[in-house]
Design goal:
By secondary structure, the protein is an alpha+beta fold. It is built from 4 helices and 7 strands. A 5-stranded mixed β-sheet has the order 5-6-1-4-7, with helices on both faces. The radius of gyration is 17 Å and the shape is globular.
């Protein structure tokens, strides 16, 4: 089900030809969103969740980019981020599975929609016991099979 987002280079501007062949990674970066979120919430939650993986799991980050004029750009993930959705129950079950497998993860709770800064975000999560977190999003990174098991019951985001 994994797709590649690479396309062939245009007008020969790149020094190495890019391939349209899918690249199969041994690992997976995935985001699971609760299906009842509004569009702006889905985008916001996804951005926050993947930022956590990028800062603590250095192997997910590729090399910096540079355009043909030599203008540098920040590095990004070296592989696609797959986005899934599911019910509140699916998210709760995935959270329990990711904890039992001790995979790198990030969470976003409904309380974070009411806070306005990092300090308050962390306080809001810290104030709620694990089993009572009102999860709206979860990011996970790890071996493909382990991540697939965590996401059991979720479906690809349309």
């Amino acid at each position: 089900m994994q797709r590649t987002y690479k396309t062939a280079s245009y007008a020969g501007r790149q020094s190495r030809p890019m391939t349209t062949e899918p690249i199969r990674f041994d690992t997976k970066i995935a985001v699971l969103l609760r299906e009842d979120l509004e569009t702006w919430q889905r985008l916001n939650v996804t951005a926050f969740l993947v930022s956590g993986l990028g800062t603590t799991v250095p192997e997910v980050i590729g090399e910096p980019y540079e355009d043909a004029d030599g203008v540098p750009y920040l590095p990004m993930f070296r592989q696609p981020v797959l986005v899934f959705e599911g019910t509140k129950e699916t998210l709760t079950a995935a959270h329990a599975r990711v904890l039992s497998r001790a995979l790198p993860r990030a969470v976003f709770t409904s309380d974070l929609f009411t806070t306005g800064n990092d300090r308050d975000n962390r306080s809001a999560v810290r104030a709620v016991p694990t089993a009572e977190l009102d999860l709206v999003g979860l990011a996970v990174y790890g071996p493909r099979n382990a991540v697939d098991k965590v996401l059991k019951g979720a479906r690809m985001h349309p």
